[in-house]
Write a structure and sequence with these properties.
Helix content is 78%, strand content 0%. It has ten helices and no strands. The protein has helices spanning 2-28, 35-60, 65-93, 97-111, 113-143, 151-173, 180-208, 231-240, 248-266, 273-296. Helix 1 (2-28) packs antiparallel against helix 5 (113-143) and helix 7 (180-208) runs antiparallel to helix 9. The protein is elongated, with a radius of gyration of 23 Å.
C-alpha cells in the first residue's frame, strides 16, 4: 500500500504544484478572468485521465487470460519507461518549473481562451495519463497473489492523491515552503525502486502469456520463510512488489533496471561527459580569443 501511496503522492503533487503555479500567477497579475478557462482545462485533463484508467481496467476484463497478461505486461513496461523519463525530467526542471510555466501562460494569455484551456490541459493531462497508466500497472502488481485485494492498493493511491492536493493547497496559501529539487530527488529515487518491481511483474505477465519463456525457472523460492499472506509479506508486496518465488528472468531484469537507473538518477546533475565537453569547449573558446587578441596586437 505504501508504494501506491507514494505513486499517488508523487504524481499528484506534481500536478497540484502545476495548477497552483498557474492559478497564483493569474491572481497576482490581475487576470482572474482567465481562471475559468484554466480550471476548465484542468477538469478536462482529470476527466480524460479517469476515462483512460477506467478503459484500461474494464476493457481488459473482456480479454482471455493470456491476452490480459500480454496487455498487462506490455503496459507495465510502457508505464515504467514513462515514469523513468518523468522522474529524470522533473529532477532537472524542478528548479525552474515556475518560470517555465509562467512563460507558457503568458503566451497563452496573448492567444486567447482556447490557448488557456489547452495550456492547462497539457500541463495536467500528461501527468494524469502517466499516473493512470502507472497506477493501473502498480495496482495489478500489488493485488496479484496477495491478501490485500484490489482495494488496499487503490486506497493507498487515493490517500496519496488527497495528501498531494492538501500540500498543493498549503503551498498556494504560503503555509509551506517546499524545496522542489530535494523533494523530487528523494521521492523520485523511491519511485524508481517501485518501478523496478512493476517492471519485474510485467516480465512475469509476459511469461504467463507465453510471450517470454522461463516461467518454470525460479531464481529462488522463500514462500515458506516469507508467506505472501503474512503481514510482512504483504508489506514487502505493497512497498516493493516483492514476489517470494520470482523467475530468473524477473530478477535479472529487475537488477539490470534498478542498479544503473538509480545510480544515474542519484548522480549530481550535470556530471559526466556533457560537463567535460562544456568545460573543454569553454577552454577552447578562451584559447581562440587569446590567440586572436595576440594577432590583433
Amino acid at each position: 500500500m505504501f508504494g501506491n501511496y507514494l505513486i499517488g503522492l508523487r504524481e499528484g503533487l506534481e500536478a497540484s504544484l502545476v495548477v497552483c503555479i498557474l492559478i497564483a500567477y493569474l491572481v497576482k497579475t490581475g487576470r482572474r478572468d482567465a481562471l475559468k478557462p484554466v480550471w476548465a482545462g484542468v477538469g478536462v485533463a482529470v476527466g480524460v485521465a479517469l476515462a483512460f484508467g477506467a478503459g484500461l481496467e474494464f476493457g481488459s476484463q473482456e480479454l482471455t487470460f493470456e491476452a490480459q497478461e500480454l496487455l498487462g505486461g506490455s503496459l507495465s513496461i510502457v508505464a515504467v519507461v514513462l515514469v523513468t523519463w518523468m522522474v529524470f525530467w522533473m529532477r532537472r526542471t524542478a528548479r525552474h518549473l515556475r518560470s517555465e510555466l509562467h512563460g507558457k501562460l503568458d503566451a497563452a494569455l496573448r492567444m486567447g481562451t482556447g490557448a488557456l484551456v489547452a495550456t492547462a490541459f497539457l500541463a495536467v493531462g500528461r501527468e494524469g495519463l502517466e499516473t493512470a497508466l502507472f497506477v493501473w500497472a502498480s495496482v495489478r502488481a500489488a493485488s496479484s497473489g496477495g491478501s490485500e485485494g484490489t482495494y488496499a492498493p487503490l486506497a493507498g493511491v487515493l490517500l496519496g492523491l488527497l495528501t498531494a492536493v492538501l500540500i498543493g493547497w498549503l503551498f498556494y496559501r504560503g503555509a509551506v515552503r517546499i524545496n522542489l529539487a530535494k523533494f523530487f530527488t528523494w521521492t523520485g529515487g523511491m519511485l524508481v525502486v517501485v518501478a523496478a518491481g512493476v517492471l519485474a511483474y510485467g516480465v512475469h505477465d509476459l511469461q504467463e502469456a507465453r510471450f517470454l519463456g522461463g516461467l518454470a525457472d525460479k531464481a529462488f523460492d522463500v514462500s515458506e520463510t516469507i508467506p505472501p499472506d503474512s503481514w510482512y509479506g504483504t508489506l514487502l508486496k505493497g512497498v516493493l512488489n516483492f514476489q517470494p518465488d520470482p523467475t530468473v528472468l524477473q530478477v535479472t531484469v529487475w537488477a539490470l533496471y534498478l542498479v544503473p537507473t538509480l545510480a544515474l538518477f542519484l548522480a549530481p546533475i550535470g556530471s559526466g561527459a556533457s560537463t567535460r565537453l562544456k568545460k573543454q569547449k569553454a577552454t577552447d573558446e578562451k584559447a581562440e580569443a587569446g590567440a586572436s587578441t595576440e594577432k590583433t596586437a
